[in-house]
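Feature request, filed as a ticket because there's no other form

It would be nice if the structure record came with a short human-readable summary line next to the tokens. Right now we just get the raw output. Example of a typical job, pasted below so the devs can see what we mean:
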Amino acid sequence: MSEEANIELPKRKRNPDDGELDITPMIDVTFLLLAFFVVVSRMDPQAAVALPMASYGDSIQDKEAVTLIVVLDEATREKAEIYKGRSMAEDTKVPPGDEESQEANIGEYVENELSSYPTKNAILIKAEGDVKTGMVEMVKRGVGLSELAKTRKIYVGIEAEQ
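Raw output as currently delivered:
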């Protein structure tokens, strides 16, 4: 019995691969799930999204600026009409004609307003959302004809239906 007590059992050698897991099947399943959700999910690009109001830009008071309003003609909805001042009365309308005469008319109006009211420190162009960019640029060129307008900031506001 004493011989049996002194006998040690041989230690079992550990295989280095015993403690590691093979994650290849898990990666395969992950990519299959990813592919499944990409295929079955629907992307709706026309979904209505409520956009917040713009929180950038400077605020300007209508009374502190020379105002010009650009809207589309009610009848045709193609040609733009320009109004001098804060109202859209018929007597404030810039007469239709070629762009150069309209620009000159706008420049003269802005010059008169800024010389008559020196406290006005900006030019505000209000435009409907459907007005073409070229029309707003034409109004800006007309404003640029005024010498007094060159020292003032020009603001452009676009009104869009929601």
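Something like this underneath would help us a lot:
The longest helix spans residues 99-116.
The radius of gyration is 37 Å.
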